[in-house]
Protein backbone atom coordinates (compact mmCIF):
# COMPACT_ATOMS: atom_id res chain seq x y z
CA UNK A 1 0.00 0.00 0.00
CA UNK A 2 1.07 3.59 -0.58
CA UNK A 3 2.33 4.84 2.76
CA UNK A 4 0.80 7.73 4.66
CA UNK A 5 4.08 9.60 4.27
CA UNK A 6 4.02 9.16 0.48
CA UNK A 7 0.36 10.16 0.25
CA UNK A 8 0.99 13.32 2.29
CA UNK A 9 4.03 14.26 0.19
CA UNK A 10 2.03 13.79 -3.01
CA UNK A 11 -0.66 16.13 -1.68
CA UNK A 12 1.73 18.76 -0.34
CA UNK A 13 3.76 18.92 -3.56
CA UNK A 14 0.78 18.95 -5.91
CA UNK A 15 1.22 15.48 -7.42
CA UNK A 16 -2.28 14.57 -6.27
CA UNK A 17 -5.02 16.53 -4.55
CA UNK A 18 -6.35 15.66 -1.12
CA UNK A 19 -9.77 15.21 -2.75
CA UNK A 20 -8.37 12.60 -5.14
CA UNK A 21 -6.70 10.81 -2.24
CA UNK A 22 -9.95 10.67 -0.29
CA UNK A 23 -11.97 9.53 -3.31
CA UNK A 24 -9.52 6.68 -3.86
CA UNK A 25 -9.87 5.62 -0.23
CA UNK A 26 -13.68 5.76 -0.39
CA UNK A 27 -13.67 3.63 -3.52
CA UNK A 28 -11.29 1.14 -1.92
CA UNK A 29 -13.57 0.77 1.10
CA UNK A 30 -16.64 0.33 -1.09
CA UNK A 31 -14.88 -2.36 -3.15
CA UNK A 32 -13.11 -4.31 -0.43
CA UNK A 33 -14.72 -3.93 2.95
CA UNK A 34 -17.67 -6.21 2.32
CA UNK A 35 -15.11 -9.02 2.66
CA UNK A 36 -13.61 -7.66 5.88
CA UNK A 37 -16.48 -5.99 7.82
CA UNK A 38 -14.06 -3.52 9.35
CA UNK A 39 -16.02 -0.30 8.67
CA UNK A 40 -19.24 0.46 10.54
CA UNK A 41 -19.79 4.01 9.20
CA UNK A 42 -18.23 5.92 6.34
CA UNK A 43 -17.61 9.63 6.97
CA UNK A 44 -17.50 10.44 3.28
CA UNK A 45 -19.11 13.88 3.19
CA UNK A 46 -17.07 15.28 6.06
CA UNK A 47 -13.91 13.79 4.53
CA UNK A 48 -14.63 15.43 1.18
CA UNK A 49 -15.18 18.82 2.80
CA UNK A 50 -11.94 18.51 4.77
CA UNK A 51 -10.01 17.42 1.67
CA UNK A 52 -11.32 20.38 -0.32
CA UNK A 53 -10.29 22.73 2.50
CA UNK A 54 -6.76 21.28 2.48
CA UNK A 55 -6.52 21.71 -1.29
CA UNK A 56 -7.56 25.37 -0.95
CA UNK A 57 -4.93 25.96 1.73
CA UNK A 58 -2.23 24.38 -0.45
CA UNK A 59 -3.26 26.58 -3.37
CA UNK A 60 -2.78 29.58 -1.08
CA UNK A 61 0.69 28.40 -0.15
CA UNK A 62 -0.20 27.59 3.45
CA UNK A 63 1.39 24.83 5.56
CA UNK A 64 -0.88 21.81 5.89
CA UNK A 65 0.95 19.37 8.17
CA UNK A 66 2.93 16.14 7.82
CA UNK A 67 -0.20 14.01 7.21
CA UNK A 68 -1.86 16.32 4.70
CA UNK A 69 -4.81 14.61 3.03
CA UNK A 70 -4.12 11.21 4.59
CA UNK A 71 -7.33 9.29 5.41
CA UNK A 72 -7.47 7.48 8.75
CA UNK A 73 -9.84 5.09 10.47
CA UNK A 74 -11.25 5.55 13.96
CA UNK A 75 -12.24 2.77 16.35
CA UNK A 76 -15.85 3.44 17.27
CA UNK A 77 -15.15 4.35 20.88
CA UNK A 78 -13.50 7.67 19.97
CA UNK A 79 -15.82 10.66 19.73
CA UNK A 80 -16.24 12.04 16.22
CA UNK A 81 -18.18 15.26 15.82
CA UNK A 82 -21.67 14.71 14.47
CA UNK A 83 -21.62 10.97 15.15
CA UNK A 84 -22.89 8.78 17.97
CA UNK A 85 -20.08 6.96 19.77
CA UNK A 86 -21.43 3.40 20.00
CA UNK A 87 -18.38 1.60 21.47
CA UNK A 88 -19.46 -1.33 19.33
CA UNK A 89 -22.88 -1.64 20.98
CA UNK A 90 -26.51 -0.83 20.21
CA UNK A 91 -26.83 0.12 23.88
CA UNK A 92 -25.52 3.61 23.08
CA UNK A 93 -27.17 3.97 19.67
CA UNK A 94 -29.81 6.41 20.94
CA UNK A 95 -27.26 8.72 22.55
CA UNK A 96 -26.97 12.21 21.02
CA UNK A 97 -24.25 12.80 18.42
CA UNK A 98 -21.00 14.18 19.78
CA UNK A 99 -20.32 17.88 19.44
CA UNK A 100 -16.55 17.55 19.15
CA UNK A 101 -13.83 15.08 18.22
CA UNK A 102 -11.76 13.17 20.75
CA UNK A 103 -8.52 14.97 21.60
CA UNK A 104 -6.26 12.59 19.66
CA UNK A 105 -8.60 12.77 16.66
CA UNK A 106 -8.27 16.56 16.76
CA UNK A 107 -4.50 16.27 16.91
CA UNK A 108 -4.40 14.02 13.84
CA UNK A 109 -6.63 16.49 12.01
CA UNK A 110 -4.29 19.32 13.03
CA UNK A 111 -1.49 17.33 11.34
CA UNK A 112 -3.53 17.28 8.13
CA UNK A 113 -5.09 13.80 8.43
CA UNK A 114 -8.75 13.22 7.57
CA UNK A 115 -11.07 10.88 9.51
CA UNK A 116 -12.79 8.69 6.93
CA UNK A 117 -14.41 5.74 8.70
CA UNK A 118 -15.58 4.46 12.05
CA UNK A 119 -14.33 0.94 12.65
CA UNK A 120 -15.68 -2.26 14.17
CA UNK A 121 -14.66 -3.55 17.59
CA UNK A 122 -15.62 -6.01 20.30
CA UNK A 123 -18.61 -4.63 22.18
CA UNK A 124 -17.33 -2.13 24.76
CA UNK A 125 -13.80 -3.35 23.92
CA UNK A 126 -14.33 -6.56 25.94
CA UNK A 127 -12.67 -9.27 23.87
CA UNK A 128 -9.76 -10.26 21.66
CA UNK A 129 -11.65 -11.31 18.52
CA UNK A 130 -13.91 -8.50 17.15
CA UNK A 131 -16.81 -10.92 17.09
CA UNK A 132 -19.50 -8.29 17.34
CA UNK A 133 -23.08 -9.53 17.72
CA UNK A 134 -24.49 -6.21 16.45
CA UNK A 135 -22.19 -5.18 13.59
CA UNK A 136 -20.69 -8.49 12.45
CA UNK A 137 -17.42 -10.37 12.75
CA UNK A 138 -14.41 -8.53 11.35
CA UNK A 139 -12.46 -10.87 9.09
CA UNK A 140 -8.70 -10.95 8.70
CA UNK A 141 -7.64 -9.52 5.31
CA UNK A 142 -4.74 -12.01 5.18
CA UNK A 143 -7.26 -14.88 5.24
CA UNK A 144 -10.92 -13.97 5.55
CA UNK A 145 -11.73 -17.31 7.13
CA UNK A 146 -9.75 -16.17 10.17
CA UNK A 147 -10.24 -13.72 13.02
CA UNK A 148 -8.77 -10.24 12.88
CA UNK A 149 -8.25 -10.16 16.64
CA UNK A 150 -9.57 -7.52 18.98
CA UNK A 151 -10.84 -5.49 20.41
CA UNK A 152 -9.47 -3.05 17.82
CA UNK A 153 -9.92 -5.60 15.04
CA UNK A 154 -11.58 -3.14 12.67
CA UNK A 155 -8.60 -0.80 12.95
CA UNK A 156 -6.05 -3.53 12.25
CA UNK A 157 -8.09 -5.01 9.39
CA UNK A 158 -8.65 -1.63 7.75
CA UNK A 159 -4.89 -1.08 7.57
CA UNK A 160 -4.05 -4.68 6.62
CA UNK A 161 -6.66 -4.60 3.85
CA UNK A 162 -5.27 -1.40 2.35
CA UNK A 163 -8.39 0.65 3.15
CA UNK A 164 -6.52 3.36 5.07
CA UNK A 165 -2.79 3.74 5.77
CA UNK A 166 -3.29 4.54 9.46
CA UNK A 167 -5.98 3.92 12.08
CA UNK A 168 -6.40 4.45 15.79
CA UNK A 169 -7.51 2.06 18.50
CA UNK A 170 -7.33 1.38 22.21
CA UNK A 171 -5.37 -1.14 24.24
CA UNK A 172 -6.40 -2.18 27.75
CA UNK A 173 -5.00 -5.70 27.86
CA UNK A 174 -3.71 -6.11 24.31
CA UNK A 175 -6.42 -4.70 22.07
CA UNK A 176 -3.90 -2.99 19.78
CA UNK A 177 -1.13 -5.57 20.01
CA UNK A 178 -3.22 -8.70 19.40
CA UNK A 179 -4.99 -7.58 16.19
CA UNK A 180 -1.80 -5.95 14.90
CA UNK A 181 -0.04 -9.29 15.33
CA UNK A 182 -2.78 -11.36 13.70
CA UNK A 183 -3.30 -8.96 10.77
CA UNK A 184 0.38 -8.31 10.05
CA UNK A 185 0.45 -4.57 10.75
CA UNK A 186 2.26 -2.29 13.19
CA UNK A 187 0.68 -1.01 16.39
CA UNK A 188 1.76 0.99 19.41
CA UNK A 189 0.52 0.98 22.99
CA UNK A 190 2.25 4.14 24.29
CA UNK A 191 3.29 4.76 27.87
CA UNK A 192 0.29 4.70 30.21
CA UNK A 193 -1.06 8.25 30.43
CA UNK A 194 1.07 9.73 27.65
CA UNK A 195 -1.80 10.24 25.21
CA UNK A 196 -5.00 11.94 26.41
CA UNK A 197 -8.19 9.90 26.78
CA UNK A 198 -10.56 12.83 26.42
CA UNK A 199 -13.46 11.79 24.19
CA UNK A 200 -12.69 8.06 24.43
CA UNK A 201 -15.32 5.70 25.85
CA UNK A 202 -13.66 3.84 28.74
CA UNK A 203 -13.36 0.12 29.32
CA UNK A 204 -11.14 -0.21 32.39
CA UNK A 205 -9.98 3.31 33.08
CA UNK A 206 -6.84 2.45 35.08
CA UNK A 207 -5.49 0.33 32.19
CA UNK A 208 -6.86 2.04 29.07
CA UNK A 209 -4.37 3.44 26.54
CA UNK A 210 -4.92 4.70 22.99
CA UNK A 211 -2.53 4.39 20.08
CA UNK A 212 -2.05 4.06 16.32
CA UNK A 213 -1.91 1.28 13.73
CA UNK A 214 0.02 1.57 10.46
CA UNK A 215 1.31 -0.45 7.55
CA UNK A 216 4.97 0.32 8.24
CA UNK A 217 7.13 1.63 11.06
CA UNK A 218 7.60 5.06 9.48
CA UNK A 219 3.85 5.68 9.28
CA UNK A 220 3.42 4.37 12.83
CA UNK A 221 5.92 6.97 14.03
CA UNK A 222 4.19 9.76 12.07
CA UNK A 223 0.80 8.83 13.50
CA UNK A 224 2.12 8.59 17.05
CA UNK A 225 3.87 11.94 16.81
CA UNK A 226 0.66 13.55 15.58
CA UNK A 227 -1.36 11.98 18.41
CA UNK A 228 1.32 13.01 20.91
CA UNK A 229 1.50 16.56 19.60
CA UNK A 230 5.30 16.52 19.38
CA UNK A 231 8.10 14.95 17.36
CA UNK A 232 10.39 12.18 18.55
CA UNK A 233 13.65 14.03 18.11
CA UNK A 234 15.77 11.91 20.44
CA UNK A 235 15.77 8.53 18.69
CA UNK A 236 18.96 6.72 19.75
CA UNK A 237 21.27 4.49 17.73
CA UNK A 238 19.81 0.99 17.93
CA UNK A 239 23.31 -0.45 18.07
CA UNK A 240 23.92 1.24 21.39
CA UNK A 241 20.82 -0.10 23.10
CA UNK A 242 20.83 -3.04 25.50
CA UNK A 243 18.27 -5.53 24.18
CA UNK A 244 17.16 -8.76 25.83
CA UNK A 245 14.60 -11.46 25.12
CA UNK A 246 11.81 -12.38 27.50
CA UNK A 247 11.77 -16.06 28.45
CA UNK A 248 9.76 -18.17 30.85
CA UNK A 249 6.07 -17.35 30.44
CA UNK A 250 6.81 -15.84 27.02
CA UNK A 251 8.40 -19.02 25.63
CA UNK A 252 5.44 -21.33 26.13
CA UNK A 253 3.14 -22.70 23.42
CA UNK A 254 4.82 -20.84 20.53
CA UNK A 255 4.34 -22.21 17.02
CA UNK A 256 7.71 -23.18 15.47
CA UNK A 257 7.67 -20.35 12.90
CA UNK A 258 7.28 -17.77 15.64
CA UNK A 259 10.08 -19.24 17.70
CA UNK A 260 12.31 -19.25 14.62
CA UNK A 261 11.38 -15.64 13.87
CA UNK A 262 12.32 -14.57 17.37
CA UNK A 263 15.62 -16.42 16.97
CA UNK A 264 16.31 -14.45 13.79
CA UNK A 265 15.67 -11.16 15.54
CA UNK A 266 17.86 -11.96 18.50
CA UNK A 267 20.57 -13.32 16.21
CA UNK A 268 20.64 -10.15 14.13
CA UNK A 269 20.79 -7.99 17.25
CA UNK A 270 23.43 -10.18 18.84
CA UNK A 271 21.23 -10.89 21.86
CA UNK A 272 22.40 -13.58 24.24
CA UNK A 273 20.58 -12.45 27.35
CA UNK A 274 17.21 -13.93 28.30
CA UNK A 275 15.31 -12.46 31.23
CA UNK A 276 12.11 -13.52 32.98
CA UNK A 277 9.33 -11.45 34.44
CA UNK A 278 8.45 -12.65 37.92
CA UNK A 279 4.93 -13.98 38.51
CA UNK A 280 3.70 -13.31 34.97
CA UNK A 281 0.78 -15.71 35.47
CA UNK A 282 -0.33 -13.89 38.61
CA UNK A 283 0.05 -10.56 36.80
CA UNK A 284 -2.22 -11.80 34.04
CA UNK A 285 -4.77 -12.96 36.60
CA UNK A 286 -4.62 -9.57 38.31
CA UNK A 287 -5.22 -7.90 34.97
CA UNK A 288 -8.31 -10.08 34.44
CA UNK A 289 -9.69 -9.11 37.86
CA UNK A 290 -9.03 -5.36 37.53
CA UNK A 291 -10.53 -5.26 34.05
CA UNK A 292 -13.63 -7.19 35.09
CA UNK A 293 -14.19 -5.09 38.20
CA UNK A 294 -13.76 -1.72 36.49
CA UNK A 295 -15.76 -2.68 33.43
CA UNK A 296 -18.55 -4.20 35.50
CA UNK A 297 -18.75 -1.18 37.79
CA UNK A 298 -18.99 1.20 34.82
CA UNK A 299 -21.87 -0.71 33.23
CA UNK A 300 -23.77 -1.83 36.33
CA UNK A 301 -26.42 0.95 36.30
CA UNK A 302 -27.31 0.19 32.67
CA UNK A 303 -27.13 -3.58 33.20
CA UNK A 304 -29.81 -3.21 35.86
CA UNK A 305 -32.23 -1.61 33.41
CA UNK A 306 -31.27 -2.84 29.91
CA UNK A 307 -29.40 -6.13 30.26
CA UNK A 308 -30.88 -7.72 27.14
CA UNK A 309 -29.51 -5.00 24.87
CA UNK A 310 -25.97 -6.29 25.42
CA UNK A 311 -24.22 -9.06 23.52
CA UNK A 312 -24.87 -12.04 25.85
CA UNK A 313 -21.16 -12.88 26.13
CA UNK A 314 -20.26 -9.29 27.03
CA UNK A 315 -23.20 -8.98 29.42
CA UNK A 316 -22.25 -12.10 31.35
CA UNK A 317 -18.63 -11.01 31.79
CA UNK A 318 -19.61 -7.50 32.87
CA UNK A 319 -22.14 -8.80 35.38
CA UNK A 320 -19.60 -11.23 36.81
CA UNK A 321 -17.14 -8.37 37.19
CA UNK A 322 -19.70 -6.15 38.87
CA UNK A 323 -20.33 -8.86 41.48
CA UNK A 324 -16.68 -9.31 42.43
CA UNK A 325 -16.12 -8.70 46.15
CA UNK A 326 -13.64 -6.03 47.19
CA UNK A 327 -10.99 -8.37 48.59
CA UNK A 328 -9.77 -9.94 45.29
CA UNK A 329 -9.80 -6.55 43.58
CA UNK A 330 -7.62 -5.07 46.33
CA UNK A 331 -5.24 -8.02 46.05
CA UNK A 332 -5.10 -7.59 42.26
CA UNK A 333 -4.05 -3.95 42.65
CA UNK A 334 -1.39 -4.93 45.17
CA UNK A 335 -0.03 -7.47 42.70
CA UNK A 336 -0.12 -4.78 40.02
CA UNK A 337 1.94 -2.37 42.11
CA UNK A 338 4.48 -5.05 43.04
CA UNK A 339 4.74 -6.33 39.46
CA UNK A 340 5.21 -2.84 38.07
CA UNK A 341 8.11 -2.24 40.44
CA UNK A 342 9.75 -5.52 39.40
CA UNK A 343 9.38 -4.81 35.68
CA UNK A 344 10.64 -1.25 35.94
CA UNK A 345 13.68 -2.51 37.83
CA UNK A 346 14.60 -4.63 34.77
CA UNK A 347 15.12 -1.45 32.76
CA UNK A 348 18.03 -0.49 34.96
CA UNK A 349 19.91 -3.24 33.09
CA UNK A 350 18.23 -3.36 29.65
CA UNK A 351 16.71 -0.80 27.29
CA UNK A 352 14.38 -2.93 25.16
CA UNK A 353 12.79 -6.35 25.67
CA UNK A 354 11.53 -8.61 22.86
CA UNK A 355 8.62 -11.03 23.31
CA UNK A 356 5.96 -12.72 21.18
CA UNK A 357 2.63 -10.92 20.84
CA UNK A 358 0.47 -14.05 20.44
CA UNK A 359 1.22 -17.77 20.48
CA UNK A 360 0.70 -18.15 16.73
CA UNK A 361 -1.31 -17.00 13.71
CA UNK A 362 -4.94 -15.92 13.64
CA UNK A 363 -7.43 -18.66 14.57
CA UNK A 364 -10.16 -19.67 12.16
CA UNK A 365 -13.55 -18.08 12.69
CA UNK A 366 -15.26 -21.48 12.65
CA UNK A 367 -12.78 -22.81 15.21
CA UNK A 368 -11.94 -19.82 17.44
CA UNK A 369 -9.45 -21.57 19.71
CA UNK A 370 -5.72 -21.52 20.36
CA UNK A 371 -3.54 -24.23 21.86
CA UNK A 372 -2.32 -23.53 25.40
CA UNK A 373 -0.71 -26.27 27.45
CA UNK A 374 -1.58 -28.78 24.76
CA UNK A 375 -5.31 -28.04 24.99
CA UNK A 376 -7.62 -25.91 22.84
CA UNK A 377 -8.90 -22.86 24.74
CA UNK A 378 -11.13 -19.93 23.78
CA UNK A 379 -9.37 -17.45 21.51
CA UNK A 380 -11.65 -14.61 22.59
CA UNK A 381 -10.47 -14.95 26.20
CA UNK A 382 -6.89 -16.14 25.71
CA UNK A 383 -5.32 -14.39 22.72
CA UNK A 384 -3.93 -11.90 25.25
CA UNK A 385 -1.78 -14.52 26.96
CA UNK A 386 1.39 -12.50 26.29
CA UNK A 387 -0.10 -8.99 26.27
CA UNK A 388 -2.13 -8.94 29.48
CA UNK A 389 0.72 -9.23 32.00
CA UNK A 390 2.65 -6.40 30.34
CA UNK A 391 -0.34 -4.06 30.49
CA UNK A 392 -0.08 -3.84 34.27
CA UNK A 393 3.31 -2.12 34.22
CA UNK A 394 2.32 0.90 32.09
CA UNK A 395 5.24 0.59 29.66
CA UNK A 396 5.26 1.53 25.97
CA UNK A 397 4.97 -1.54 23.77
CA UNK A 398 5.34 -1.66 19.99
CA UNK A 399 3.74 -4.56 18.12
CA UNK A 400 5.53 -5.49 14.91
CA UNK A 401 4.90 -8.18 12.27
CA UNK A 402 7.62 -10.64 11.40
CA UNK A 403 8.57 -10.56 7.74
CA UNK A 404 6.80 -13.30 5.73
CA UNK A 405 8.74 -16.44 4.76
CA UNK A 406 11.20 -15.84 1.95
CA UNK A 407 11.49 -19.48 0.88
CA UNK A 408 9.33 -21.01 -1.82
CA UNK A 409 6.82 -23.69 -0.98
CA UNK A 410 5.67 -22.22 2.33
CA UNK A 411 2.19 -23.45 3.25
CA UNK A 412 -0.77 -21.07 3.46
CA UNK A 413 -0.63 -21.15 7.26
CA UNK A 414 3.12 -20.50 7.27
CA UNK A 415 2.43 -17.34 5.26
CA UNK A 416 0.05 -15.92 7.87
CA UNK A 417 1.31 -13.00 9.98
CA UNK A 418 3.06 -13.51 13.29
CA UNK A 419 3.82 -10.67 15.64
CA UNK A 420 6.29 -9.65 18.31
CA UNK A 421 6.30 -7.05 21.08
CA UNK A 422 9.11 -4.58 21.72
CA UNK A 423 8.94 -3.22 25.27
CA UNK A 424 10.75 -0.26 26.85
CA UNK A 425 10.73 1.75 30.05
CA UNK A 426 8.01 4.41 30.47
CA UNK A 427 8.57 7.38 28.20
CA UNK A 428 11.08 5.53 26.01
CA UNK A 429 9.04 5.18 22.82
CA UNK A 430 12.07 6.49 20.92
CA UNK A 431 14.05 3.37 21.86
CA UNK A 432 11.26 1.17 20.49
CA UNK A 433 11.28 3.00 17.17
CA UNK A 434 15.07 2.75 16.99
CA UNK A 435 15.04 -1.04 17.29
CA UNK A 436 11.93 -1.47 15.14
CA UNK A 437 13.38 0.65 12.35
CA UNK A 438 16.68 -1.25 12.38
CA UNK A 439 14.89 -4.60 12.19
CA UNK A 440 12.58 -3.33 9.45
CA UNK A 441 15.48 -2.05 7.38
CA UNK A 442 17.16 -5.45 7.79
CA UNK A 443 14.08 -7.13 6.29
CA UNK A 444 13.23 -8.98 9.49
CA UNK A 445 10.06 -7.05 10.37
CA UNK A 446 7.26 -5.88 8.11
CA UNK A 447 4.38 -7.46 6.19
CA UNK A 448 3.20 -5.99 2.86
CA UNK A 449 -0.30 -4.53 2.53
CA UNK A 450 -2.25 -4.09 -0.71
CA UNK A 451 -2.49 -0.82 -2.59
CA UNK A 452 -5.72 1.22 -2.60
CA UNK A 453 -8.07 0.92 -5.54
CA UNK A 454 -7.50 3.39 -8.39
CA UNK A 455 -9.92 6.29 -8.27
CA UNK A 456 -12.34 6.89 -11.17
CA UNK A 457 -12.61 10.65 -11.24
CA UNK A 458 -15.82 10.57 -13.29
CA UNK A 459 -17.62 9.91 -10.00
CA UNK A 460 -15.30 11.69 -7.63
CA UNK A 461 -17.26 14.94 -7.59
CA UNK A 462 -20.71 13.38 -7.33
CA UNK A 463 -20.95 14.20 -3.62
CA UNK A 464 -22.58 10.85 -2.87
CA UNK A 465 -21.58 9.13 0.35
From TrEMBL:
Gene3D superfamilies: Amidase signature (AS) domain (3.90.1300.10). Residues 20-233, 304-432 form the Amidase domain. It comes from the Bacteria. GO terms for molecular function: catalytic activity. Pfam families: Amidase. NCBIfam families: amido_AtzE, PRK09201.1. This is Amidase.
Amino acid sequence: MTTAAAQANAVRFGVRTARETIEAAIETIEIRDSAYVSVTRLLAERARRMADAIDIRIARGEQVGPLAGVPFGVKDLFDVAGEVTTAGSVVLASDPPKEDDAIVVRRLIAAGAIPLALLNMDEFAYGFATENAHYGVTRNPRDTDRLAGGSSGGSAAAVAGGLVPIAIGSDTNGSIRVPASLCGVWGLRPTQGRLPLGGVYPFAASLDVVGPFAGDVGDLKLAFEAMDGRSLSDIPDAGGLRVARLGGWFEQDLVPALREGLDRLTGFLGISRIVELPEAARARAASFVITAAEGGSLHLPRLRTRPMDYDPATRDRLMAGAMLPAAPVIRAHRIRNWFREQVHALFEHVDVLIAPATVGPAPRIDQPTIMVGGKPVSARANLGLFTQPLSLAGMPILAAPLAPPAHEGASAEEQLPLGVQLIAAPGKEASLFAVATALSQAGLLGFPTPAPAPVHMSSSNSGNS
